[in-house]
Each structure stands twice: as structure tokens, then as C-alpha cells.
Amino acid sequence: MIRPATPADVPAILDMIHELAAYEKAAHEVRATEEDLHAALFGDRPAAFVHIAEQDGEAVGFTLWFLTFSTWRGVHGIYMEDLYVRPQHRGGGHGLALMGELAGICAERGYQRLEWSVLDWNEPSIGFYDKLGALRQDEWLKYRLTDEPLRRLAGRD
Fold it and tell me: Which CATH number characterizes residue 144's domain?
């Protein structure tokens, strides 16, 4: 079953974020707290959305996403920040169901893009996305500013 997250899901979401970060060899980078997630997902102006894959009343996976906008197409799209299914539940269709939920939201709302990134060494995920017919965007380089370089650029170092 796929459903929108509720405030009661925040602890499970944060646990799965930690599990995902460990899998991606970046556990030391997680700074999010339950309070951060609650504010971002359920505050006055939600910045992101989460859907939960649930089996027998247990959260076994999630996808966290937010809206984008394409200047070329003139409409919104979805950027999937994370898709995670707990290891013992992989292969059961949860990831496909989560992706299908986001594709359904795109179709229902007239969004024309569903985008995400995947680590270049994550062969199981790459294979999964390739089977869906997703197109790799090899011509684009991804950039990120965080921490000190971001503060410096903002003039707040």
C-alpha cells in the first residue's frame, strides 16, 4: 500500500533516511532531526512531500519529493530526492509502486517531468531505473553549494 505520510510517520522516515545515508556511505552527513522533517513536511508551507510504502502496518519504504518548474515546458514537475525500500522488503514491488504513485501525481496534475539522481556506483538502482525506461541525463553535470562555500557566496562567512 502506498499512502501520503502523516506526522506520525516522521520517526520512521528519519530512521529510513539514516539507513539510506549509511547505504550511500554518507551517514555522517545526515543532520535532519524529527523537528526539521515535521516542519518541512507538515508546517505552514510544506517544502517537500513523502509517500510511504506500507506492508502489514509497517513503513517499509518511502519517497521524498518536491516540485520543480521547467522553463522550457512551462509547467511543474517532480524531483524525487530519495527513494528507499528497506533491504528485507526489496524485490516486493514497493519501489515500483512508489515510482508509480509519483508518475500518477504527474499525470493527474499535468506535470511533464519526474526527475531524480542516482549514484554512479549504485548498479541495482540504475538497473531498476533503466527497466522503467528512464533516460540518463549524461550531458548535465550536477553542482551543489553547501556549508562554508554557500555562506561565503551569500556574504555571510
Answer: 3.40.630.30
